[in-house]
Design goal:
alpha/beta, 9 helices, about 260 residues, six-stranded mixed beta sheet
Length: about 260
C-alpha cells in the first residue's frame, strides 16, 4: 500500500492512495477539493472515501464539495459530525481503506479532536497518517491542547514500529531542522538528515514520508527525554533546564514557538 502527495496551498500535502484495480482512491485531509478532483479526472479515478485528522480548514475545506460530487464516506473526529464526517471514529476503532485496516489513535495536542491512523499492510511497511501531530523534525503547535497531551501523543507514536512510514501533512522539514540543530547541534544523525532534506527540496521533491526511526533520532519533540535537547532549549530560552518530562517537553515547544 502506497500514498502519493498532492500539493495544496503553500505547504500542504493531500495524501491519496495509489489507484487500485477498481480505479478508486482515498484522500487524507483534503483541504482543497479542486486538487483532488483534477487528480481524479486526469487519472480517470473515483474518490472512494476520505480520512480526516482534525477540524482545521486547510484539512477539511474540500470535504463538502468532494462528498457532494462522489457520494463517499468520511471518517474523522466526532466534532465534525454530522456536518462533514459521516462516520465518527475514536481511539481503538478501525477503518478499512483500500482493503487495509487502519487503527484510529487519538492524539490531542495540536487540537483536542486530533486523530492519527495507523496500518500494518501485509505488502508494505507500516503506515502512519498523522496530520499535524507529527512532522518530519517537528510537531504541531499547541493551539488547543496542553504540553502533557502532546507529550502523550509523542510517546504513543514513538512506540510504533521503527520502520513505520510517517505521512505528515505539511512541508515544514527544513524550518523544523533549523530549530532542531540549534538545540541539538552535536546530533550527527540530524546533520545527515538535514543534508538529505536540503537535497530533496533542491530537486523539488517532498521530504516525506519520514520514519519513526528517523524521528526518534532527529526530532526534538521525540527526544524530550534527552538531556542535551532539553538543555539546548533551556539555553535558547535563557531559562533553567526543566527536570520532569512534561515541563521538558513544554520548554522545547516554547523554544520552537519563539525561534
Amino acid at each position: 500500500m502506497t500514498f502519493i502527495p498532492l500539493p495544496a496551498f503553500n505547504d500542504n500535502y493531500i495524501w491519496v492512495t495509489q489507484a487500485t484495480s477498481q480505479q478508486t482512491i482515498w484522500a487524507v485531509d483534503p483541504g482543497d477539493a479542486k486538487v483532488v478532483i483534477e487528480y481524479c479526472q486526469s487519472q480517470q479515478l473515483k474518490l472512494a472515501g476520505i480520512l480526516v485528522t482534525h477540524h482545521h480548514k486547510d484539512h477539511t475545506g474540500g470535504v463538502a464539495e468532494l462528498t457532494q460530487l462522489y457520494q463517499c464516506p468520511v471518517y474523522g473526529p466526532a466534532s465534525l459530525a454530522p456536518q462533514l464526517v459521516t462516520h465518527p471514529v475514536q481511539q481503538g476503532d478501525e477503518v478499512s481503506v483500500a482493503d487495509n485496516m487502519f487503527l484510529v489513535l487519538e492524539t490531542p495536542g495540536h487540537t483536542l479532536d486530533h486523530l492519527c491512523y495507523f496500518a500494518e499492510p501485509q505488502d508494505s511497511k507500516p503506515l502512519l497518517l498523522c496530520g499535524d501531530t507529527l512532522f518530519r523534525g517537528g510537531c504541531g503547535r499547541l493551539f488547543e491542547g496542553t504540553p502533557a497531551q502532546m507529550l502523550s501523543a509523542m510517546t504513543k507514536l514513538r512506540s510504533l514500529p521503527a520502520d513505520t512510514l510517517v505521512f505528515g501533512t505539511h512541508e515544514y522539514t527544513l524550518a523544523n531542522y533549523r530549530f532542531a540543530v540549534a538545540i541539538d547541534p552535536n546530533n550527527t544523525k540530524l546533520v545527515e538528515a538535514i543534508e538529505e532534506a536540503e537535497s530533496l527540496r533542491e530537486e523539488g521533491t517532498p521530504t516525506l514520508p519520514s520514519t519513526i526511526a528517523l524521528e526518534i533520532e532527529t526530532n526534538p519533540f521525540m527526544r524530550f527525554d534527552r538531556k542535551e535537547v532539553v538543555e539546548g532549549a533551556a539555553k535558547l530560552l535563557k531559562e533553567d533546564m526543566a527536570l520532569d518530562a512534561v515541563n521538558s517537553f513544554a520548554q522545547i515547544r516554547r523554544a520552537k514557538d519563539g525561534f
